[in-house]
Amino acid sequence: MVETILFYGFAALILISALLMIIAPNIYHSALFLALCLFGVAGIYVVLNSYFLAGIQVLVYIGAVVVLALFVINLTRRILDVDSDQHNEQLLPAVIISGLTAFLIISAVLKTNWGTMIAHRVAQDNTALTGRLLLNEFVLPFEIVSVLLLAALIGAISIVAGDKGAQK
Amino acid sequence: MTITLAHYVVLSALLFAIGIIGILTRRNAIGILMSLELLFNAAAINMVAFSKYLTPSEIYGDIFTIFIIAIAAAESVLGLAIILAMFRKRETVNADEMNIMKY
Amino acid sequence: MEQLNVLGLAIPALPLLAFLLITAITAKKKMLSAVLSISCIFASFLISVYLLILQLKAGHGASYEFSFPWLFLGDVKMSLGILINPLTTVMLIVVTTVSMLVQIYSIGYMKGDYAFSRFFSYISLFSFSMLGIVVANNLIQMYIFWELVGLCSYLLIGFWWFKPEAAEASKKAFIVTRFGDFGFLVGILILSYITGTFNFAEIQAQINAGLISPGLLTVIALLLFSGAVGKSAQFPLHVWLPDAMEGPTPVSALIHAATMVAAGVFMVARLFGIFSASPHAMLVIAYLGGFTAIFAATIALTQNDIKRVLAFSTLSQLGYMMLAMGIGGYTSGMFHLTTHAFFKALLFLGAGSVIHAVHTNDIQLMGGLHKKMPITSITFLIASLSIAGIFPLSGFWSKDEILVNIMESGHMGLYYVAAATAFLTAFYMFRLYLMTFTGKPRDAHAYEHAHESPLTMTVPLMILAVLSIVTGFAGIPGKEQSFYNFLFFGAHPHETHFNMGVALSSSAIAVSGIALALLMYAFGLIKPEAVKNASGPLYKLSYNKYYIDEIYMFFIKNGFFVIASAVKWFDRHVVDGAVNLVAFLCRWAGSKLRLTVNGGVQSYALIIFGGLVFIAAVFAVWNPDALKLLGGR
């Protein structure tokens, strides 16, 4: 029962904040709604008993990605933009396409026999297991992702700084 | 009323659909990037939910989600860096104004 | 027998090797190229001699054949192979000997030419192709090499491509022979379609078994013969050969006198089983050959270019051989081919020596060269006597045998034609000889600078002169070990006997021809000018080669060009129009569609997502079960 309430609560939070995020006329508000939405996703992870994942979601997404986005918004803000239209003229086809996507997925879900699948509650915290898996079975993808992050870091610096050098 | 896997899948489908609308309609390139994050999260919710319901003793869905988060972070860093560089050159962050690569 | 495989293949393969090596490696080193080419052909010559000795020991019946499969096209099996029999060995000896001597001669003649190595590479390629025709044991292989010699002929006629006449002549040779080759190819295809094989022996077996209807066989024989008409320059496809004299003289000697043009005669000999099974085709061959013989001889009377006289003489002699073939004189035709190869090569090389000395082709500017170049003069005289048919030179024996054969066949009209040709031959050869080597020099400047050619040129002349004398002795009628008992068609050698009447009359004809020439050009008793004026239009007709070229040009201009311009119009407006329409439609559609490429990321994304969802929706409608995840409900 608690799970049901939590799920619907977080689902409503995610969907409402996501909707507000895409329709918010101000990009700054939009980013804040994104943070809220991601927080809701973290809550869903909690409902699914993935506490460690929920932590990462909050730390990395809300703490890093959204904050970075806010920084960039601040750096690129112009007075002109505040009043200008934040949406292009593709709204109607976009709504049709996304509606069709959702319809297809949901109709697939409704046609599917989910049987007796219910969440198996894993009582103990799975953080230790996650750590073991990452450093044993998934060590190679783990290392590759770390290299990817390093490359992204260097790439981001060179893109932003290289532009400065060219202007000199 | 118990929460089944179908609930999570429907939630992720709706989140995905909202993300698509955002990608297709936001003029601000940062807005497009943020909408992309919604798509990532929709996929991540699916990963975790399927993992929990189909193979409860394994946590491979969690591991994949960790990778998704890491890669999404890398993606947004690069995307934002490009937007920043673009802004310096063209004085705009609107995607529909960055259209010099046309016919 | 294993060694025969290797040897038989080595004969054509060696010149090919020389061609490849010269082209790839030694092109810069002139003498090395020449030595390479000559040593390869010399090796081929030695092998040919060895094979000839083997064949002579084995006697007539022995023929050795070896083939391996090459290409399978559906049910059609094509093989490559070699066939060694008396005909092959005789022809091998002729080709390798003349080719070798001509190449030695070319060292002197082509000295200082900018493309010395290229010349030898082409000659090697030609030797390869010609030997390939000779050893071929099936029609398709023969046809391949047949076309290859045509290519070599084209390359070598146009060797001095910067001369417009040479370029024109090479094109003419290639195109005119193509008419004949087309018929040849059609004939080969019909024949192989009926018999299901390309192999000579298998075709022969089917003909002997009477599996092909006589009417069809006549058609096939005439089609095959059209190839020989083109290659051996018989009327009406003779027009390319005189023009081919624009090539270097050694080329004329090798290709356009001794070997390639004789390939047509050789082909008739090789396929004699097919031709002899069709009396009508044989009659056509005989009459066409006879007509060409006298037709070309009358043109040769009035030509002033030393090489052209010899070219028309070649035409005439080839006609003689065809005539011999046509009346069933297989052996005598081949014998004349052999002797002719030697004395005609000698004549051409002698002419080349003269041209080398005086730098002109026009005999009206020569004269008195005997003093300056005695070796050339004497060898030329020997060859002239030989071709005129003077006892005991080789031409006497071979020509005489043809005349005997014609007489025995009962075609008296052809006999008179052949006799008249012999008279004309003797006359024009001595007109040529006398105007070139005797009398007073008509061009003092050219005479002053004339000199005997170097040894590389005169030695081949002397060897060929010896061959021109002695080859005839191989074919003395009635002898047990003669040419006639070695090379013949059918089960038994053709009965040969010395016909004293024919011999005497032909000698008398030859001598009278020579005498007339002497009277006109040596003693001046009959003024050539007077004869020319007396004959009036006849002289002009002969001098202008019966206007055959002009007639062809008339038909080409008024027939061919009209058709060509109609085809051109069709091509320009209908075919190109269709192509342009397609291009225009593409451009038009592109100009409209490019508006979708507006550079906006989001419109691209819309199209991508839209397309994806559309496809998914189509799948879902088409097969609703596709939406059932996990096996469905």
Q: Strand sequence of the main sheet of chain C, in spatial order?
A: 1-2
| Largest interface, C-beta within 8 A | A-B, 86 and 73 residues
Taken from the alpha-carbon principal axes, the silhouette of chain C is: globular
Relative strand content of chain A: under 5%
- What integer value in Å does the Rg of chain C equal? 30 Å
The first-level CATH class of one domain in chain A is given as Mainly Alpha
Distance N to C terminus of chain A: 64 Å
Structural class of chain A: mainly alpha
- The class by helix and strand makeup of chain C works out as mainly alpha
Low-confidence stretches of chain C: none
Beta-strand percent range of chain C: under 5%
What does this structure look like?
The complex is a heterotrimer of chains A (168), B (103) and C (633). Chain A is mainly α and 168 residues long. Chain A has seven helices and no strands. In chain A, α1 packs antiparallel against α2 and α2 runs antiparallel to α3 (51-76). With 103 residues, chain B is mainly α. Chain B has one domain (5-97): Orthogonal Bundle (Helix Hairpins), CATH 1.10.287.3510. Chain B has three helices and no strands. In chain B, α1 (5-25) packs antiparallel against α2 (29-54). In chain B, 59% of the residues are buried. Chain C has 27 helices and two strands. Chain C is globular and about 110 Å long. The chains are: A mainly alpha (168), B mainly alpha (103), C mainly alpha (633).
Keywords:
heterotrimer; A: 168 residues; mainly alpha; Four Helix Bundle (Hemerythrin (Met), subunit A); 7 helices; globular; C: 633 residues; two-stranded antiparallel ribbon
Secondary structure layout plus pairing:
The complex is a heterotrimer of chains A (168), B (103) and C (633).
Chain A: H1 2-23, H2 27-47, H3 51-76, H4 79-83, H5 91-111, H6 127-135, H7 139-167
Helix pairs in contact in A: 1-2, 2-3
Chain B: H1 5-25, H2 29-54, H3 60-90
Chain C: H1 2-24, H2 30-58, E1 64-73, E2 76-84, H3 86-109, H4 116-135, H5 139-157, H6 164-195, H7 200-208, H8 214-231, H9 240-243, H10 249-258, H11 263-270, H12 272-276, H13 279-300, H14 306-326, H15 330-358, H16 369-372, H17 374-388, H18 394-409, H19 412-437, H20 444-449, H21 455-470, H22 483-486, H23 500-522, H24 528-535, H25 537-543, H26 548-593, H27 601-622
Q: In brief, what are we looking at here?
A:
The complex is a heterotrimer of chains A (168), B (103) and C (633). Chain A has 168 residues and is mainly alpha-helical.
